[in-house]
Amino acid sequence: MRTPAVMTLGLVLAPCGLLLNLTSTLTPGWRTVKGFRDQPVDVVLFQGLWDMCREQSSRERQCGQPDPLGYLSAQPVLGARGLMLSSLAAAALGLLLATLGVRCWRDEPHWVLAGFSGLLLFLSGLLSLIPASWYNHFLDDRDVLPAQPSPVTVQVGYSLVLAYLGSCLLLLGGFSLALSFAPWCEERCHRCRKAASSSPRRRGSISTVHVDWPQPALTPAIKYYSDGQHRPRPAELRADSRPKAGFPMPRPPPKAYTNPMDVLDGEKAVSSHGASSGSTKPYPSSLPCDSDL
């Protein structure tokens, strides 16, 4: 298959950024100092991370200049040395992985390896951008980066510009190669969805098991009363379903309430006594009468 455009772009930008960073690290041109009082007007001092060179228009450049002010031992210079070397190492490793991942005599690129190479190149760009920005921030600060007092002028050197350009190219190239993770992620997601659709469904958990518990015994008032109607008990249904034989027995008449005492004895005596005496006033009875009840 053809090499994807993102990989091609990353393989073009990353080596350019590595070359620019290597040049800016080795060359003594991070800062230029001009305008010395006791020297000719055309004398320029180039200060880098490892060396300082003196140049005059009528003479050749002379490197290895003395450092009476302690420029090479300043914190921005020492920090830039370590970070730039780390950036170069990360960029070299990233390009090696990119070469193996993009093609390496394969029909298709190795997406994961190319993606990791992009991450390394992006990290390399950050490692070179940090010291360049730090150095530029203290470029004119003579207390942090020592230099002679005024009228001596301090300007940005070409090495610092190359460091900025190399960092940007490494960032762009690394990001472009890191996009190689996209096809790999898409393939993995497709496999996961396919495996999930083909796998058998899992049984329900124990919380979804249905158990047929026996019905509780109901009271007769509830058991034989349904829909507003009384239903006969099973025993009664069985008794009614049997064939009946014989003749019906006569039922005794219902027993009425009878008072064992004669409550009218006193009234009879009173009424007979009153009739003989000619008095109509009844004698009160000590026993209750049915009408009183």
Automatic annotation (TrEMBL):
Transmembrane segments: 78-100, 112-136, 156-184
Topology of this chain in the membrane: Multi-pass membrane protein
Signal peptide: 1-19
Record's subcellular location: Cell junction, Tight junction; Cell membrane
Stretches with biased composition (Polar residues): 273-283
Biased composition (Basic and acidic residues): 228-243
Domain of life: Eukaryota
Keywords tagged on the record: Cell junction, Cell membrane, Membrane, Signal, Tight junction, Transmembrane, Transmembrane helix
Region of interest: Disordered: 224-293
InterPro entries in the cross-refs: Claudin, Claudin_CS, PMP22/EMP/MP20/Claudin
GO cellular component terms, semicolon-separated: bicellular tight junction; plasma membrane
Gene Ontology MF: a single term: structural molecule activity
Family: Belongs to the claudin family.
Protein name per its UniProtKB record: Claudin-23
Source organism: Erinaceus europaeus (Western European hedgehog)
